[in-house]
User: Fold this.
Amino acid sequence: KFIGYNQYGVLINKDVQGVTLSCDAGLGYINSDGLLVASGTTNGVLTANYNGIQTKVNIVLVEEAEIAIRLDSVLIDGKFEYPIEVQSIIGLNTMNVLSSALSWTVLQPDICSVQNGILKGLSNGTATVIGNLGSFKDTIIVKVEIPGSGRIVHEDFSNAASWTVTPPLTSWNTTLNTDGLPNGWTHGVSVRYTYKTTRSPSIRMSKLMPLYGIPDTIKLVLNTGNVEITKLILGLRTNNQTANTALTFNSLQLNKDIEINIPVSQIATNVNDIHSYPVWFDYFTLYINSLTQTQDVIYNIYLKEIALRYKNISLGINPTKTSSKIHVFPNPFVSNELMLNFEKQINGPLSTNIFNLNGQLMCSQHFENISKDYKISVESLIVGTYLLQINYENHEETIKIVKH
Assistant:
């Protein structure tokens, strides 16, 4: 770092930018980022130039120094490449060490790889990575989470007991129920309560959970029914933050499926800092307009899912026949139904989701019957191209469908 003085010796700049460096050949070299890499074997002089002004500093090389990887553990996906951050403390100075200078060993090479100090995710799982430099070494734990599509449902509220529900009064008898959900919903819960008069009523839903992978956007899908919500506040934080970021959304529409979108950039200081992940979800609070509530009447607020969108993951427009097992016809189509055919009967339930090319969920269906043939309703779709996601027997297939 460089500081600048004027001709009278007054400090006028504590961070001078645009300085160029040069050094003695035996000392090392200046890399493409303009930093000194002390790769040489002899002491030397580092020279800094700025607009014709020059200053120098003597550099002394030590034989070796203890190294430490900055982070104990990281979360990556199959797209994010992470130059592992290595540091060394020499005297009072903490210095960066080029990760390419270390030799790297991955104990689970099917999970991730390290080439020239750059970490890449290969498949889902956890791996131990060891870096060596001279007689020193350090370890980092790598967790790889690769989403199967550009949009996944992270939380469908199927495990209601995992949520903490905090109503304004215990007399509200607030419960989570799976019956009476809005038309077309195959999962979700209703927050059911009996209204009792109180000041500034609100219901808080809490569940501290890490979100999968490295999402671009977090989506909460809900339907407030006939309950007027004056505002909704969500609490989330990145992995390197100690306090939640509270995001407020006002005046939600009645009796309509609503998708609340939260870009991770609204939470993270730097979305490119690997230490920001995972993103943690903590709570959301629904504030109710008491003027629209009637004493002792039972009300329902419906929660469908928390979904995640990944901008760097292709939605994967596949051919009509994605495998030898599945056929979808007609395709393209003009009717209100599609036929889904398996070459062999499948076991267990089947569910389908249809997304537009922006990753927005358009409709969902769930089938409990065991069969080879299924009818999928597409009446709600307008003319356009969509992605049909099929989930069965712990498999997922995505097929491009086109409505004319």
